[in-house]
Amino acid sequence: MHIMRTDLRQLHEALLDLTAFLNRPQPDRSLIAEAGIRLDRALFPLLVRIERRGPIGIVELAETMGRDHSTVSRQVAALEKSGLAIRRPGRTDQRVREVAITAKGRSMTAALDAARERLVGPFFAEWSKRDRSELVRLLRRLVADLTRGEIASGSGSQRRRSP
């Protein structure tokens, strides 16, 4: 199947716009305030990622966050100091350090989820359940396909390049 250049450009622009929105500080600040929690905005995405994907190795966590290992390690230390996460030896490889959410951290992410539902839920109120499900399905498919085709996989072919 041939993909039109304009289709790819429009998809790329939409993804850039979504990424720009998600990276803006104000939505995170609003979410944190709505949740009624005290958390440094820089630690917010890290805590949520640990809760969603953890326990997770520090190196893998850094890669998924697009940050370097030392930055994430310092941020994890701040989460540990706050009692929100804990570092421990890896489950499958004791040499690997992984980070896991604590009960206090899980309570905080639950408050963030409830706040997200209150703040973002109304935007989807007019969407049908089918449209919401289809959006999730297509985004998951896109991520899976892009992940499978990463240039880091060793193939330099045009087909395997990431956006």
TrEMBL record:
Residues 1-144 form the HTH marR-type domain. Gene3D superfamilies: Winged helix-like DNA-binding domain superfamily/Winged helix DNA-binding domain. PROSITE patterns: HTH_MARR_2. GO terms for molecular function: DNA-binding transcription factor activity. GO terms for biological process: response to stress. It holds the Pfam family MarR. This is Transcriptional regulator. It comes from Reyranella soli.
